[in-house]
Amino acid sequence: MNADGRTRLNQTPEWTSLAKHREELGEVRLRELFAADSGRGAGYTLQVGDLHVDYSKHLITDETLRLLRELAAATDVFGLRDAMFRGEKINTTEDRAVLHTALRAARDAVVEVDGENVVPAVHTVLDKMSAFAEKVRSGEWRGHTGRRIRTVVNIGIGGSDLGPAMAYEALRSFTDRELAVRFVSNVDGADLHEAVRDLDAAETLFIIASKTFTTIETITNATSARDWLLAELKAGPDAVAAHFVALSTNAEKVADFGIDTANMFAFWDWVGGRYSFDSAIGLSLMIAIGPDRFREMLEGFRIVDEHFRTAPAESNAPLLMGLLGVWYGNFFDAQSHAVLPYSHYLSRFTAYLQQLDMESNGKSTGRDGHPVDWQTGPVVWGTPGTNGQHAYYQLIHQGTKLIPADFIGFAEPVEDLLPGLVSQHDLLMANFFAQTQALAFGKTPDEVRAEGVPEELVPHKTFMGNHPTTTILARELTPSVLGQLIALYEHKVFVQGAIWNIDSFDQWGVELGKVLAKRVEPALTEGAEVAGLDESTRALVAKYRELRGR
Ligand code: F6P
C-alpha cells in the first residue's frame, strides 16, 4: 500500500515477480522452449466445448503461467466474475449489473437483479422473437400491400450492428437463402442508399436496432428509411407498422418514432451494447437462420459461460487468454493483438471484436477513479488470414513490432460448399498451420545459407521467428461454435479489465465526439458561429463550406 492508501497494480508483489521473471527469461526463444520439452505442443492445450485451444507457441514457461495465475488471484478475477454472474452492479460508473450471461441462461435458471429473477423475461422475449421470425420466414408476415418479406434491413450501429452483421456472415450457410439480410450503420447516406436502391419496398422489413433509441446515426437512418418506404409505397404512416420493428430498451422513444410497441423486442439496461448481440439485437440473425439455430448458438455461449464460471484457473481458457494478453501488453510492451480467422465466413469477426475489446478496455482511469499507470487494452485488428498473408503478414514476420496473434480455423468446410470447392479447404488450412509454424520458429541465417542464398541476401531472407500465437481449432463453424467463440472473447476481455482494475462496461470515451458533432453541425449547414471551435477546426469548417460552394 502506498502513502496515499492505494495499492497500485504495478507495485504488487505479483506484478513485480512477473517483471523479474520477464527479465530472467531475457530473449527466450520458442525454438529452445520446444527443444527443452518434447511434450510442449500437446501439453499446452485446452479444450473448451468444441474449441481446441493451443497456446504452446507462446513465450511462456510453467513458471510464467504460475505467476500470471497468481496475478489473477491477487486481483480477484474470479471474485469479480462471480459478482458478475450473480448480477451485482459491477459496472460502477453506470451503477448497472452486467448480465449478458443471463441472455443465454437456461429457461429454469435463476439470475436476480435487484431481487428479481430476470430469466423469465429473457425467455419471453426469445419466444416473441421466435414467433415473429417464423412468421417472416414462412411468409405469414405480410407487408402493407400484402406481399411477403424478401429482404430484412437492420439499421443500427456499434453493438446494434456489428454482432448481427458478423454472425449473419459467419452463419451464411445456415441461412434461408431466399431471404436476404442487409445491414446499415453509417450515417453517411451512401450506406442506406446502397442498401435500398435495388429493393422493392413492398417486400422490405426494417429492423431498427438501438438500445437507447437516441443514437443519432440510427435515428437519422431510420427516419430516412421510413421516408423512403412511404414514398416508394405511396402510402401514409399506417404503412409503417407492417415494415418497421424495433429492438430497444426504450419503449417511449420507440413509440415516439411511430413504431407500435407491440412490434418492439425488448432488452434491459443490464445488457451492454457490445454484449447485446444474443439479446433481441440478434433478431435479424434469428430471421436468417431460424429460431432453432439461434438457440443452438445460445447454448454455445452457455457452454463457455459454464466453463469460465467453473473451470479451475489451470484449465480456464478465457482466463488463460486474458493472462497471455496481459503478459505481452504489460511485460513485452506489445501494443496490438491480431485476430486472424482462416474462414471467409468470419470476415467480420475481428471488426466485431474491435468494439468488444477496445470499447471495453480502452480506458485509462481505474475503478478507483485514479489514473492507471500501466498499459490497458490493445489495438485489436486483423482480417481473414490468407488475404492478410498477402498484405500485412510481412510486418508480423519481419517487422520490428511484437504482435501476438490468434489463429482461428476449422477442420471441415461448411456443409453446403459446392463439392468442387471442398478440396480447397486443405490448402486453406495448410496455410493456417504453416503460418503459425513460420511465425514461431522462423528461419535462421544458417538455414537460409544452406539453401544457397547469396550472403548479401541472407539477412533479408532470415525470419527471426518467436512471434507468439494462439491456435483455436474446431471441427466446423456451427451456430454453437460461433456462440462459444464469442463468449470466449467476451470473458477474455472481462479477465483483462478485472486485472487492470478498469470498468470494462462503460464507454464514456465515445461521448465527447458526439457532443462536439452536434455543436459543429450548424457551422457546416448554416455557417453559424460556433463557440469553442479551435482555430484548426474553424479553418477546416470554412474550407468545407467553400468546397461545398456555401
Ligand atoms: O457510442 C457508442 C455506443 O453507445 C455503443 O456502446 C453502442 O453499441 C452503440 O453506441 C449503439 O448504441 P445504441 O444501441 O443505443 O444505438
What key phrases describe this protein's structure?
single chain; about 550 residues; alpha/beta; Rossmann fold; 3 domains; six-stranded mixed β-sheet; five-stranded parallel β-sheet; 23 helices; 13 strands; about 10% strand; globular; binds 6-O-phosphono-beta-D-fructofuranose; SIS_PGI_2; gluconeogenesis; glucose-6-phosphate isomerase activity
Task: Summarize the entry for a quick read.
With 550 residues, the chain is of the alpha/beta class. The chain is built from 23 helices and 13 strands.
Outline the structure in words:
The protein has 550 residues and is an alpha/beta fold. The chain folds into three domains: 30-90 and 300-504, Glucose-6-phosphate isomerase like protein, domain 1 (Rossmann fold, 3-Layer(aba) Sandwich), CATH 3.40.50.10490; 101-289, Glucose-6-phosphate isomerase like protein, domain 1 (Rossmann fold), CATH 3.40.50.10490; 516-548. It contains 23 helices and 13 strands. It has helices at residues 13-25, 30-36, 40-43, 62-74, 77-86, 119-138, 162-170, 189-196, 216-233, 240-243, 251-257, 283-289, 291-310, 317-331, 349-361, 385-389, 393-398, 424-441, 445-450, 458-461, 479-500, 511-525, 535-547, and strands at residues 45-48, 51-54, 112-113, 116-117, 151-155, 180-184, 204-209, 244-248, 264-266, 336-341, 379-381, 405-410, 469-474. The strands form three sheets. It has a six-stranded mixed beta sheet with strand order 1-2-13-12-10-11, with helices on both faces. Strands 6-5-7-8-9 form a five-stranded parallel beta sheet, sandwiched between helices. A hairpin with a 2-residue loop joins strand 3 (112-113) and strand 4. Helix 6 (119-138) crosses helix 12 (283-289). The longest helix has 22 residues, at 479-500. The protein is globular and about 75 Å long. The mean pLDDT is 96. The protein binds 6-O-phosphono-beta-D-fructofuranose. Residues 157-160, 210-212, 215, 218, 273-274, 359, 507, 510 line the site of 6-O-phosphono-beta-D-fructofuranose (F6P).
